[in-house]
Design a protein that fits this description.
By secondary structure, this protein is α/β, with parallel strands linked by helices. The protein is built from 12 helices and 8 strands.
């Protein structure tokens, strides 16, 4: 994919950079975002003074997104490009060529978890070492938005960066980020209270996207595959997860949106469990929902599957 994309980027480097930057015809400040969680933050903090474009189409799996020439042009003319470095190689390349001085890397403003800090099945049992975004991220987990506390800090820093890029509206960005932080604090309280007393704390997932959520709320993530949702588990890994699921009395195997549930369903049949959706929010499937809607749906799925009281 990188070999296919790089020539396109090089050809467009000059052409895309020739257009106007920072503002649309309506005078709104232009933001381009890599995928849904960053689009959500930008829209909430930017309000009606910004125009937000996202590089990952609704319902698309974002890990290996490829960019069209038009999307590279969107990166080139944006006043700010918001992304997570190492998560989407094509986006990293476009930003490095077209918006290096106008980029906000959300992963750079909060502490990140190392890949393999949980039972992810990394090298050895689960999956396939050497995924592109694992290498690019330097061994750090990019799924930071699933921790509302870290996500609130990212929101604050994004508001500061927008204020620097668009000083005329800095006060509004700060105020909206303050309101968003209060909502995220309330969400964190809901998760803390909802997951405080559970019969089980083992979170068996189709792939290990939920380390931040597990770390925040004292759960133990057991991934069928590693950090890449497209990876296929080895028979040894499936057997190891099945043993742990039986030993811990796991009743629910979680699979995610945007990828096939087949492996999770196979494991569930093997151990006599059911399956349920746990959405990593990498791409929004229901366009009537938003970050808070999906996170609360996740909390409901977790409390039911883990046998939580109250």
């Amino acid at each position: 994919m990188r070999r296919r994309l790089l020539p396109v980027l090089l050809v467009l480097a000059t052409l895309a950079g020739c257009g106007g930057r920072a503002a649309t015809a309506s005078g709104k400040f232009e933001i381009v975002t890599a995928f849904y969680p960053l689009q959500f933050l930008s829209e909430r903090i930017g309000g009606d003074v910004v125009s937000v474009t996202t590089l990952t189409k609704p319902g698309a799996e974002p890990h290996d997104v490829e960019l069209t020439p038009r999307q590279v042009g969107d990166v080139a003319k944006a006043g700010l490009a918001v992304y997570i470095k190492g998560f989407q190689p094509a986006v990293d390349q476009a930003i490095a060529l077209e918006a290096k001085d106008r980029a906000f890397n959300a992963a750079s403003v909060v502490p990140l978890l190392e890949l393999g800090d949980d039972d992810s099945g990394g090298d050895g049992e689960g999956g396939e070492p050497g995924h592109e975004h694992e290498e690019a991220a330097g061994g750090e987990d990019p799924h930071v938005w699933l921790d509302p506390v870290r996500f609130a800090t990212i929101a604050d820093r994004l508001a500061e960066r927008l204020g620097q890029a668009d000083p005329a509206h800095a006060a509004g960005y700060t105020e909206r980020a303050r309101g968003l932080r209060a909502e995220l604090a309330a969400l964190n309280t809901e998760f803390t209270d909802g997951l405080k007393t559970c019969q089980r704390r083992e979170l068996v997932t189709s792939h290990t996207a939920f380390a931040y959520l597990a770390n925040r709320y004292d759960l133990h993530q057991v991934g069928i595959t590693g950090i890449s949702p497209e990876a296929e588990p080895t028979p040894q890994r499936l057997a190891a997860v099945a043993r742990e699921a039986r030993a811990t009395g796991t009743t629910t195997i979680y699979f995610e949106t945007l990828v096939s549930p087949a492996v999770a369903e196979t494991l569930a049949r093997e151990v006599g469990a059911r399956t349920a959706v746990l959405d990593p929010l990498e791409g929004l499937v229901d366009q009537k929902a938003d970050y808070f809607t999906v996170m609360r749906q996740n909390l409901t799925a977790l409390t039911a599957g883990l046998g939580c009281e109250g």
